[in-house]
C-alpha cells in the first residue's frame, strides 16, 4: 500500500510539472507604463519571449516553474507559476549602475561603490575566453570585438585591462582616459557614441514663380521610425540626423485604393488647412502599389548575408536577428531557395541553396551562428552576390538580405567604397535589402546607402514586434519589388500657389531634368507598398513669415495664363518594371478645392509635426506636443494593429521626458 501511495505521488508530481500551460499578462514600469521589449524567461531554460509595444506577452511553460521578468535599467522580478494563468508584473527601477569591470591575470576583478552593481564571475583557467564569461552575465553590457578580448597566456596581470563604463567596452587606445574615481550616474567619462547618421538640412520654402517644379525619388524605408522609438523607449535624446520625416510618415498604413486597370500604381491627393499654421495649407500625395498574395509572388532566390562579428554579440543584435529571420523562414514556400553567407574577420558559406520546405535545416544553420571577430563586410557582400548570381532565377525574386549593425572595419569600410561596390553589383539583377540591428555603434548612413544603391529597402529591427511587421504584415513589400526607379515630380500652378516646401525627403531630392532621365537611379517599391509625401504651401495672395517678397521677372508673367486657373498642382509619376529599362509615366491633376482633413491625413500630419519638433524645425510655428497628440488621436481610425496607439504613447513619453528635463 505504501509503495502504491508513493508511486501515485511521483506520477502526480510528474504530471503536474510536465503539463504545459499558457501564461499571459502585461509588464509595466513603476508608473504603470507598458514596457515594450521586456524579456520573460522560464528560469533555467532558453524558453523565453518579449513583450510587444503594449507590454503584453504570451509564453507556454511547464506548471510549477519560475518566470523571470527582465528589462534593462530595472530589477529582475521572479514569479513561481501556480494556478494563475494571467500574471501582470510591475518592475522596479535599478539604480545600482554598473561602474567598472577590470580584466586582470586569469580572473575578473570587480570594483563598485554598490556591490550589487556587478555580476560575480569566478576565476577561470588560463585557456578560458574572458569575453564568454562577461557575455550574458551583466544586463546592458555590450562587448564590441569579442575576438580582441581573448585571454592570452601571460605571467601575472594582464597589462592592458578591459574597462567597461556604463556597460560599454572602452577601446584599448583610450584606456589612459579612464581615471578613477569617476561617476557613471551622470557620466563625467564621455564614452563616445559610435552611431553614425548622414547630416542634412531641412527643405525650405521655394518661390513658385522661379521654381515651380519639385522632383524627388520615392522612399519606402521605415528604419528611422523604429530607431526613434528605440531612443524614446530607452529615455535617450533622439539625434537630430536620425530623424527622417518621410520614413516616419511611411511607417504607417494608409487607406489608399488599390490601382485599377493596366497600371501597377494609383495616385491620391488631398489638400487641407495646415493644423499648426493658419497661414498655410497642407498637401498630401499618396502612391499605392498593387498588392499581390503570397502564392502569386514569383519564386525567390534569397541569400542571407549575416554579420557575425564581435560587435553583433549583444542580445539586441545576433540573438534578435536569429529570432527575426525565423519569422521570414516560416513564410517560405517549396519553390523558394535560401542560402546563408556569414562574415566576421573573413566570409564563408554556411548553407548552400536550400528549399523553403526544408525549414528545419535552414533554422538549424541559423541557430549555429555565434559572434566573434572583426568585420570584413565588403568581402561578405562580394561572396553573397556571387552565390546569388550563381543561383539566379529568371523572372524570380533574386535578393541578398544583409543583416548587420553596419560596423565594417576590415577591407572596404567607408561609405564611398561601399557605394561603388554595390552600384557595380546592381546590374546583376540581384536586389539588396538591408536590416539594421543594435545600438551604440549602429551605422545608419552606411546601411541607407547600401539599400539605396542596391535597389532595395532599409529597415531597423529593435524588437520581435518590428520583425513581425517586416516579415509578417509587410512581407510582400519587404521582399518583392514591383517597380524600380520610381520618381515624383510636382508642378505647382503659380496662379494658385505662391510658395511651397516638401516636408522630408531631403536626401532623395533630384534635379528637375533627372525626372525624364531613365539612366538616373531612384527608389524601388514592393508589393502593396504605400508612399506618402506632404507639402506645406502658401497660396497666391497669402502671406507668411516663412516666405520672402515675390521676385519680379521681366520676361515671365504666369498670372496672365488663365488656362489652368482651377488647378492647384500636377503630379507626374514615373517608374520602370523590375526587369525594364524604359519608364512608364502617370499624370494626376489636383484642383484648388480645400477640404476637411481625413483621418489618415490628420495622422500623417501629426507624425510630420512630431518629426519636425524632433529635428527642431524652423517651421513648427511654436506648436505644442499637445497639438500632435490631439491630431494623432483624431486620426487613429481603426488602427487594427495598434501602431497608431503606440505612436501616441511615444509622443506622450517624449513629452514627459521634456517636462522632467526642464
Structure commentary:
- Residues 6-11, 97-159 and 176-192 have low confidence and may be disordered.
- The chain is 23% helix and 25% strand.
- Helix 5 (318-329) packs antiparallel against helix 6 (359-367), helix 8 runs parallel beside helix 9 and helix 12 runs antiparallel to helix 13 (625-634).
- Strands 18-17-16-19-20-21 form a six-stranded mixed sheet, with helices on both faces. It has a five-stranded antiparallel sheet with strand order 12-23-25-15-14.
- The radius of gyration is 27 Å and the shape is globular.
- It has 662 residues and is of the alpha+beta class.
Structure summarized in a few sentences:
By secondary structure, the chain is of the alpha+beta class.
